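Hello Y.,

Per our agreement to keep a running log of every chain we model this quarter, I'm adding this entry. I've kept the format consistent with earlier entries: sequence first, then predicted structure.
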Amino acid sequence: MKKLFTVALILMMLVCGFAHAEDTSVSYIQEKGTFILGLDDSFPPMGFRDENNEIVGFDIDVAKEVCKRMGVSLELYAVNWDTKEQDLNAGTIDLIWNGLSVSDERKQVMLMSEPYMDNEMVFVVNGSSDIAALSDLSDAKIGVQNGSTALEILNASEVVANGATPVELATNVEALQQLELNMVDAVFMDSVVANYEIVSTGKDYKLLDEGLSSEQYAIGFRLGDQALCDEVTKT
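Predicted structure for the entry above:
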């Protein structure tokens, strides 16, 4: 009797284990009818607030169309970029879709879709600045967004090894504001954002010819949500 009970218990544990391993990420979204997208809402042109305080951008346009085709509504949720992984794992958001750079470190904590855009990491300085090359950045204060791959790349670079000091800030917009006020000497950021800011604001910024790295953008999902990742990618 004891042996039979042990066998039955093992079988029950196996069945429960298989049930637990089933990927229900698509049906979960369909049943609740809402897709919660986490983003940094100050990351133009991918996702940012317009003059009416509405969140708009390239990623938002694509996400709206994906949700329309999947038959669910889109909900936008502004996250602290430094703690976005916690929001994702806690279920506060269903995915991160907002100029999210692919990195080996991020692949350890989230599932990443196929890349959909190329990007470069560049240095921005004021037009009147004497900084013209990476060699001029020694002892410079460099604004950079915390929780970003830009910060990881900058910290590991020769620029910092040669004496530059990273100044961690909440957003790229804040970093550019500090640059304009000469509170930092340069900003290290995504080229897509830098170019958009230069064109849209007309402010006197310039990009250094030398950058540090090229990157790709992808969509971030919870580990295990492969079905949802595949569905969004297909759509």
